[in-house]
Write a structure and sequence with these properties.
By secondary structure, the protein is an all-alpha fold. It has one domain. 73% of the residues lie in helices and 0% in strands. It contains seven helices and no strands. The protein starts with 14 loop residues before the first helix and ends with a helix.
Length: 226
């Protein structure tokens, strides 16, 4: 009984909290990534003179300040989603699910901290080209090679758990598989690929919210009865 899928009309705990946390995370991370993509030169070898541009510096600063709040919302999303799964949670997949999520947040924070350190107190004097290139290489590797791979693992485990417990729509599991595969193999090809993960979390959160707003099927049947 405890290992089977959720029955139609069975109570789902705190679905709105999970949906709201996921939506907040997605919006904040998408905003941060877009600001960084359009404000920072794509190639690390570009001289650091762009740091003296007040608009670019302001955009990068805003993006980096959004990252901690996105990470907090993501941790809340993980906790509430695990609570929703409840006793139907598989220990193996739950461990990978939780571990990949925590590693993703940790590396996201480290990458943001390195990026913030590069532009701190540099409004008038850009850092040396070698220092800037090294810092940007480290930040890029943390975000693209490690953090996004952990996001792909998180997506795969979430898809597996969701498929077994039937807590989300079927099309989202297919979309999650596609997003995870793209993040595994193509995240370094284009910077815009990084948006796939928060976009999928956004779709998942909206689906959870919509499911939580639907009245249980049993209550509908009871209301139709004479």
């Amino acid at each position: 009984m405890g290992q089977g899928p959720l029955r139609a009309g069975s109570p789902l705990r705190t679905p709105r909290a999970a949906a709201v946390a996921g939506i907040i995370f997605s919006v904040l991370l998408i905003s941060a990534l877009v600001l960084l993509i359009v404000s920072v030169p794509a190639h690390p070898a570009v001289p650091g003179s762009w740091l003296t541009d007040s608009r670019r510096r302001a955009a990068v600063t805003i993006a980096l300040n959004l990252v901690p709040f996105a990470g907090i919302a993501f941790l809340w999303f993980i906790g509430v989603l695990r609570d929703r799964i409840g006793e139907r949670e598989d220990r193996f997949f739950a461990t990978v699910f939780l571990g990949s999520g925590l590693l993703f947040v940790a590396m996201l924070f480290v990458a943001a901290a390195i990026g913030g350190g590069l532009i701190a107190d540099m409004s008038s004097t850009p850092p040396a080209e070698g220092t800037l290139a090294l810092g940007r290489d480290v930040t890029s590797i943390l975000l693209n090679v490690y953090a996004m791979r952990m996001a792909a693992v998180f997506t795969l485990t979430t898809v597996t758990i969701a498929r077994r417990t039937e807590i989300v729509s079927r099309w989202l599991t297919v979309a999650g598989l596609v997003a995870a595969l793209v993040l595994f193999v193509a995240v370094g090809i284009s910077v815009w690929v990084e948006l796939l993960f928060p976009a999928w979390i956004l779709a998942l959160s909206i689906d959870i919210l919509a499911a939580g707003l639907r009245p249980p099927r049993t209550s509908l049947l009871a209301g139709d009865a004479p």
